[in-house]
Write a structure and sequence with these properties.
CATH class: Alpha Beta
Order of helices and strands: EEHEHEHEEHEHEHEH
Distance between the termini: 30 Å
Structural class: alpha/beta
Number of domains: 1
CATH superfamily: Aldolase class I
Number of helices: 7
Largest sheet: 9 strands, mixed
Strand content: 15-25%
């Protein structure tokens, strides 16, 4: 397997979806071609060899950066130990983490007593342990031109859909209609940028559909 290109590693609380409030180790991987206009991690999009640095340098950074370091599965677990991380839940995010084969990393994590979760756009094949919790945040009609994958949707444990206006609900309805209605995952609506109009729409729709609301708790309390 090729080494992982890692943009960021930190310990915090998961602020979104089913694991809201759970202490977690976040591993943010570099690279994403999907092109979401409202993305709040655009610094992870490009993989520039000129931006490669060391793990030590990344861990000392206090601001977002497009720099990244190369890591093996073993070196990441060593990094967790070196920095004294105690959380037992690992969140693989990005960027688009499903650009990478993460089967071995997630299997080793589980053997060490961690649970794992991956946050993906659903536009790449999901290569993780079968026990990894899969959060699909559908990216529909984005500038990168990538299509939603049926196998990614079928693998989802939860769908966490960003919404700003009614057309985003309509797009989600069309997507859900393509899935097996007897085994739908948990459905979360997440207002984009916590805008009042988006939040009101999400709340109204969640009540009407018996869906769930995701409010990016970490932003409300000032965490990463």
């Amino acid at each position: 397997m090729k080494n992982l290109k890692v943009n960021e590693v930190f310990e915090s609380l998961q602020g979104e979806g089913s694991f809201t409030g759970v202490p977690s180790i976040f591993v943010r991987l570099q690279g994403c071609p999907v092109g979401c206009s409202w993305c709040d991690t655009k610094h992870t999009w490009e993989i520039s060899l000129e931006k490669e640095t060391t793990a030590k340098s990344i861990m000392q950074e206090s601001e977002e950066s497009s720099q990244w370091f190369s890591a093996t599965e073993d070196s990441l677990f060593q990094l967790f130990d070196e920095y004294g991380y105690v959380a037992k839940h690992i969140v693989l995010t990005g960027g688009e983490p499903c650009m990478y084969d993460l089967i071995r990393f997630t299997e080793v994590a589980h053997s060490k007593g961690y649970s794992t979760q991956i946050e993906t756009s659903g536009t790449f094949e999901i290569l993780t342990s079968k026990d990894t919790w899969v959060t699909v945040s559908p990216k529909i009609n984005m500038q990168g031109g990538y299509k939603m994958r049926d196998d990614a949707l079928a693998r989802a444990n939860e769908i966490k859909h960003p919404v700003a206006m009614q057309k985003h609900i309509d797009e989600l309805d069309l997507l859900l209609a393509t899935m097996d209605q007897s085994v739908l995952p948990l459905i979360y609506l997440q207002p984009i940028s916590q805008q009042k109009r988006a939040t009101d729409l999400a709340v109204k729709t969640c009540i009407a559909r018996n869906w769930r609301l995701s409010l990016q708790m970490h932003k409300f309390i000032g965490l990463e």
